[in-house]
Design brief:
The complex is a heterodimer of chains A (139) and B (138). Chain A has 139 residues and is an alpha+beta fold. Chain A has 4 helices and 5 strands; from the N terminus they run E-H-H-E-E-H-H-E-E. In chain A, helix 1 packs antiparallel against helix 2 and helix 2 packs antiparallel against helix 4. Chain A is globular and about 40 Å long. Chain B has one domain: Transcription Regulator spoIIAA (2-Layer Sandwich). Helices cover 41% and strands 16% of the residues of chain B. Chain B contains 4 helices and 5 strands; from the N terminus they run ββαβαβαβα. In chain B, strands 1-2-3-4-5 form a 5-stranded mixed β-sheet. In chain B, strand 3, helix 2 and strand 4 form a beta-alpha-beta unit. In chain B, helix 1 runs parallel beside helix 2. The radius of gyration of chain B is 16 Å and the shape is globular. The chains are: A alpha+beta (139), B alpha/beta (138). At the A-B interface, helix 1, helix 2 and helix 4 of A face helix 2 and helix 3 of B.
């Protein structure tokens, strides 16, 4: 599902409340700083994590997140994996369209988050939940 | 739940967001500001986001809603202090905050609001030197 490299130094958090979304942002920020991402890349990754953590809460009915370092040959990066056992996404292409929402938001969470990271993998099935993995590589 | 304070300075309400807001805190701020605009009759709102290291789509939408509600209540909103990395990320995310006035800092935001309420007052970067003679020497 995810492209190459094992996740190391993994930190896990449950996403059950609004407060957990804040905790995810803070955890990703800490790991992105330690992983020496540039300021703009830190900002993009934390913003993407905020969007995806909120989706996990609002659409997935809660779930959990794993954040860790990843290596792929010469490159190192940060990978974040969000997983929920919610209803899943029936029409993935539609869900990834800018402006499409079923939740009354702006419809930028999924599509916007994808633009902010280097790798974006999604595994979803109706009734089984959704797992989204995003990676930002150090430059 | 934490709450973002709203300060009244003359004809302006000043909000400086210093915490990583939960979504509910952002919604509460939206309500508090609408209440304070009506209670005070202030014509300007300045929201300082210089302490925010990210603005995601939820906070961006909240800022846009605050600006729209304020306008309906006869107050102009200026968002000030956005960090460069936040601006880059917001635009890439797909949010360019249409309808929101921005300024680089609180001082410039206050000048922007003052010039809108009183069209005779020039912004300092205007090249109109006829009134420049009145500026006191440093």
């Amino acid at each position: 599902m995810t492209a190459g490299g094992d996740l190391t130094a993994v930190e896990r958090l449950a996403i059950r409340t609004d407060q957990d979304v804040v905790r995810v942002r803070q955890l990703v920020r800490t790991i992105a700083v330690a992983g020496k991402l540039s300021l703009v890349d830190q900002t993009k990754l934390v913003t993407a994590a905020s969007e995806l953590a909120r989706n996990t809460l609002v659409y997935g009915g809660g779930g959990n997140v794993e954040v860790g370092r990843v290596e792929n040959g010469r490159r190192t990066g940060i990978r974040i994996v969000f997983a929920d056992q919610g209803p899943g996404i029936a029409d993935l292409e539609l869900a990834l369209t800018d402006g499409y929402t079923t939740g009354g938001g702006l419809g930028l969470g999924l599509s916007g988050a994808r633009r902010l990271v280097d790798e974006f993998d999604i595994d979803t099935a109706v009734g089984r939940g959704t797992t989204i993995s995003v990676t930002k590589w150090c430059r | 739940m934490e709450r973002v304070p709203v300060l009244k300075i003359g004809d302006i309400l000043l909000v400086s967001i210093q915490i990583d807001m939960e979504d509910q805190v952002a919604l509460q701020l939206q309500e508090d500001l609408a209440d304070r605009i009506v209670a005070t009759g202030c014509h300007g709102v300045i929201i300082d986001i210089s302490a925010l290291d990210i603005v995601d789509s939820f906070v961006g939408r909240t800022l846009a809603t605050i600006a729209a509600v304020s306008r309906v209540l006869d107050a102009e909103t200026v968002v000030v202090g956005m960090r460069p990395a936040v601006a880059i990320t917001l635009v890439e995310l797909g949010l360019s905050l249409p309808g929101i006035r921005t300024a680089l800092n609180v001082e410039l935001g206050m000048e922007l609001l003052a010039s809108e309420r009183d069209p005779d007052l020039d912004l300092p970067d205007d090249e109109d030197d006829e009134v420049g003679a009145v500026v006191p020497a440093p």
